[in-house]
Write a structure and sequence with these properties.
Elements: H1 2-23, H2 39-52, E1 57-63, H3 64-67, H4 76-83, E2 87-93, E3 100-107, H5 114-130, E4 134-138, H6 145-155, H7 168-173, E5 186-189, E6 199-202, E7 212-214
Helix pairs in contact: 2-6
Length: 216
């Protein structure tokens, strides 16, 4: 009888340890949302796909903190707070390099509220100063595909991927400023490619900023 009790106690002990082990595993209270995009956003997303016809990659709900970087280290936290909780509805990127081309906002009735108007003004100023277009489309039940294509084409004419050049005599006299960040550039050496071993000016904010200037 004593031996039976001992076996039973051993089995209960193993079961108890197994239960304790399972209880140590935290179960997170997260579930996948079914409304990642609203019905209006899904509708316009498909229209945007047709209008782009493969000439751009659409990224929905992009955080401004992922899209922009801050050049003022002294006031970093203040400027970061301005963008950390904001996002745009869609970001259209180059299909090869994934370089951001322009932002797209879908304006519904919520954009008529005072707080939203203030937010929209800030975002438009941010995009303007950063040199990237922000296109706005009113939310509709149906869209004219030709009109959407026309607006996208008009908004994308800004893009110029050519490197900004500085006259030879200017390069000899002073260090160029980064055309994007407005800070003095530094000399770098090409580590690969056809320009291997050659010096050039690069932005100090690399890799966030990849602007370069040739050294003549």
């Amino acid at each position: 009888m004593t031996e039976s009790k001992g076996c039973l106690a051993g089995l209960l002990g193993l079961f108890s340890k197994d239960q304790n082990h399972r209880n140590d595993v935290e179960v997170f209270p997260f579930r996948v949302r079914d409304d990642f995009l609203s019905n209006a956003e899904i509708s316009f997303y498909h229209v945007l796909q047709l209008a782009l016809n493969g000439e751009g990659v659409i990224c929905p709900k992009v955080s401004l903190a992922e899209l922009f970087f801050i050049t003022d280290n002294k006031e970093f936290q203040r400027y970061f707070n301005m963008i950390s909780r904001k996002r745009i509805d869609f970001l259209v990127c180059d299909p090869i390099t994934m370089r951001p081309l322009y932002g797209v906002e879908l304006d519904d009735q919520s954009h008529q509220k005072a707080a939203r108007i203030q937010r929209d003004a800030f975002v438009e100023k941010l995009f303007s100063q950063a040199g990237i277009p922000l296109l706005r489309f009113p939310a509709k039940a149906t869209y004219n595909l030709a009109d959407v294509k026309l607006q996208l084409k008009a908004g994308n004419t800004y893009l110029d991927l050519k490197t900004t050049t500085i006259p030879d005599d200017t390069l000899k006299e002073q260090i160029p400023l980064c055309p994007k960040c407005g800070v003095p550039m530094i000399k770098r050496v090409a580590r690969s490619g056809t320009n291997l071993g050659k010096e050039f000016y690069g932005c100090v904010n690399f890799p966030h900023c990849k602007e370069i200037q040739p050294i003549v």
